[in-house]
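Internal ticket #5521
Category: modeling
Description: The requester needs a full-assembly model to guide mutagenesis choices. All entity lines are attached below as received. Residue total reported by intake: 643.
Assigned to: D.W.
Attached entities:
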Amino acid sequence: MFGMPPLRQFIPISILIVLGFVLPFLLPQYFLYCGNLLMMYAVLALGFDILLGWSGQFAFAHVAFFGIGIYGTALLQIRLGVPFIIGMPIAAAAAGVIGFLIGLPATRLRTIHLALATFAFAECVQWIFRTWGSLTGGADGVRITPPQIFGYAVGTDGQAFPVVALILALVIVSVVFFSRSKFARSLGAIRESEHVAAASGINVPLVKVLAFAVSAVYAGVAGGMYTLFQSFVNPDALDATLLVLLLSILVVGGSGSIPGIAIGVLLMGVLPEVLRLAPRSLLVWQEFIYGLIIILSIMFMPEGIWGIVRARMQRKISVAAKRDVAQGGRMAEREVLR
Amino acid sequence: MLPSIYMSTIVLQSVVGGLATGCVYALVSLSLVIIYKSSDMLNFGGGELVMIGGYLALFAAVYLGLGYGFIFPFVIGAGFGVGALFDRITLHRIRGRSYAANSAHVPMIVATLGLSFLLKGAVRAVPYTEEPRRLDPLWRGDPLFIGNIVLQWQDVAIMFVTAGVMLGLLWFFRFTMIGKGLRAISQSPRAAALVGMPVILLRMAAWGLSASIAGIAGVLLAPKLLMTPDMGAIVMMAFAAAVVGGITSLPGCVVGGMIIGVLQNLVGVLISPQAIAVTPFFVIMIVLLLRPQGLFGDSLPSKRV
């Protein structure tokens, strides 16, 4: 699992990049807006999954780092005139540093206590954005000016689409490499048992804090993507609803895997738009349906949709292997496939 | 600057008002702690249980014309049913699975978030809830004056009901078989099952009890606040109260609720009204970082391999 990933893993990523440049000519603006939104959710969910799925740390502060990414990129651009291509990395790095600093005390806490403390931190950050009016525009929010990237003006959703797709592709590549690193394995070990991880020579506190920081950087990048296709940000964008959306993406799609998150983002991200098209009588039930979907998918799909798909694929392979054994075929070859 | 005699009256007034709201927070955080102790998890849907308690009381008063003497049993019974069914139908399925040590809570907490959306959506879908409503006060009458301090009779009623619920719970957990069983499963579900306790039924009872208490809090709150489907946000105050009290302690909830209620009012008077919203979160962060076991809590569970 270490080292260079097989090349076929890059096929979907290159398809994504190609689509990013082709689709703006084919689809109306509204669909492109939805696409931008979904790709941003994907980056958010991938970063959230590093803490929740990979390392089993029950941290709810992701939305706060997302906010730091949005406000950081937007304010650097508006107040200081820093271009997007420099401002977004600065904002993402700032989110990472703050994540690191929050991780230092937070990783001493576990499970429920960690969840409460990080949730409270996120609410405090949202309150700061709302109250510090002279910097952030307070509850009224900030109007985001269209960014320029090497002279390429990003004004419409169609112009933002290729950039957003490119960032998502880079993020996915980084997650693919991340998932094959020693760091990711350490996180998995910590998730299973901190004692065993420590006994096998993993510096548990350091790795946990680093996981906080890495996850925060992804959230900051997602915040930068937000400024590309939204013209406006206010603190209401950062409330607990977004956290619930991220959690439901992981639960419905299946956490700990890129395809699972892709499925979750597609389903849960498109759902509100589909419900919006529904007749007025159904619109009232939007929240109810949302809650029902969350509860039912937890009850009947413990590992999400991707978990079911994967189990079916594995069963197919093992059935084929058994048939081979019965026919005197060599099982070893099949085992490799698995 | 106001003369100090006015200032001290304002402070005293806000302390007394804070004690009354603190009682409601205490009730909600009791309902959270009972669930924490029985299921080892947080109930993020606790605020919505309060909300449906309030709305059930409203429907009972408006459509059925019931008085408070019938509203309380009605809400307690309905809350018990909702809580027990949610535990049996949803959480029971999740509990049976095996997870990695640290991530066992994730699905359960997400399920309670789902419950919160479900209840909020269901209430919102009823056309009657579109505008904010208010219930008649539990105890009418001219406000009570103690010195310069004004006390609403509704607040007095809240304090009496909270005291009654507390004493009832004390008796329940000390002297009844079900209460002792609940204490047993919170210590060790496996050992409780080994000595023949119906753990599944007891967990349902814990959830039912918790939802009933939340419902009572909703009935008490309904005349004080304007009711909207979003009034479940009160649960954050209750989380703060539970954290101050130490999450595992029932008396701690009451003390924590009072502290949060008074603190919130004092912050509003002495610092700025804007800071009220952030007070519970600030308290949660500070307490968890400096003294995670709170005032009365057990020391944190040691790491298990």
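Resolution: model delivered.
Comment from assignee: The longest helix of chain A spans residues 29-54.
Ticket closed.
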